[in-house]
Design a protein that fits this description.
It is a single chain. By secondary structure, the protein is of the alpha+beta class. It folds into two domains: 184 residues, Ribosomal Protein S5, domain 2 (2-Layer Sandwich), CATH 3.30.230.10; 140 residues, Alpha-Beta Plaits (2-Layer Sandwich). The chain is 40% helix and 25% strand. The strands form two sheets. Strands 1, 2, 3, 4, 5, 6, 7 and 12 form an eight-stranded mixed beta sheet that branches. Strand 6 and strand 7 form a beta hairpin. Helix 2 crosses helix 4, helix 3 crosses helix 5 and helix 8 runs antiparallel to helix 9.
Length: 344
Amino acid sequence: MGKKIIRAKAPLRLGLAGGGTDVSPYCDEFGGAILNATINKFAYATLIPLDNSKIVFKCHDIDEHYTYENINFFDKKDQNIRLIKGIHNRIKKEYDIIEPLSYQLETYVDAPPGSGLGSSSTLVVAIVAAFSEWLGLPLGEYDLAMLAYKIEREDLGLSGGKQDQYAATFGGFNFMEFYSDRVLVNPLRIKQDYINELEFSLLLYYTGTSRLSSKIIDAQIKNVNNKSFKSIEAMHDLKHLAYKMKESLLRGNLNDIGELLHQGWLSKKNMADEISNPVIDEIYNDALKNGALGGKMSGAGGGGYMMFHVQNNNIYQLRRALTQFGGLVETVSFYDRGVITWRV
């Protein structure tokens, strides 16, 4: 028998309220709060142990393949698939693995980079989980999410928040609180009837354009550092809306969801100019005319997926209206588990 193949999959997420308040320095100074939920879109990692001194990376969704030989640590200056190399380096260093590792890693994500669904961070979680399963690393849920966060934000210097790593690790509907020294994940026990109705009432629209979230987040960080009253007040509003969204979901007041999304979108646009643009505004305003009660860009903004909430059967009218913009209209299906690993 050969060595067993290890697989991992982690779910992507929809940010329902509070997005952006998980980014430093705002959450360090004021505390952040986010409500998000994982969906039936995933990042996959397959890890195949080798014994030939080679490391092989196959990123099937972006069609990039690389083979290396006799590598202990990757050069930090090498820009090709930085995320994966950063994971390799951090795990070797963090767990004092002296001997070279030889393996083949194959990855795939159900959404394109820059989708606004947390695809990059979710992929990091899946890969770290696969390594953890292979090497027997002592990683609990909080440990795994924090390690994924540190790889992206500290080791690789990629701008962003904390919610994506924790959403992918824990899964389900979660209310998350972010502070300078800790993160608290509060799973929400929402009635299945409410979840069913929410799935029916939400539409996703993929604009067909991705964006580099780090540039938008850099602008947001700059505004907080510069003590921009408009930007900081917008984040305060977003945090407050996360608490309102939590109460509405738990109580089943689903008619409030659209208005809360709308208020959140108006506040989010005040965080940084780069969050919206004329094309996004046109799509959003047309959606409101065709039955949407409210919506938002998923993730940092600027492109990727938009999300709309509709009351009653206006969902069909809205679907027709969005199709005319040439993007992809999708329904929402929630997923109630976090990252999982298994051996083949």
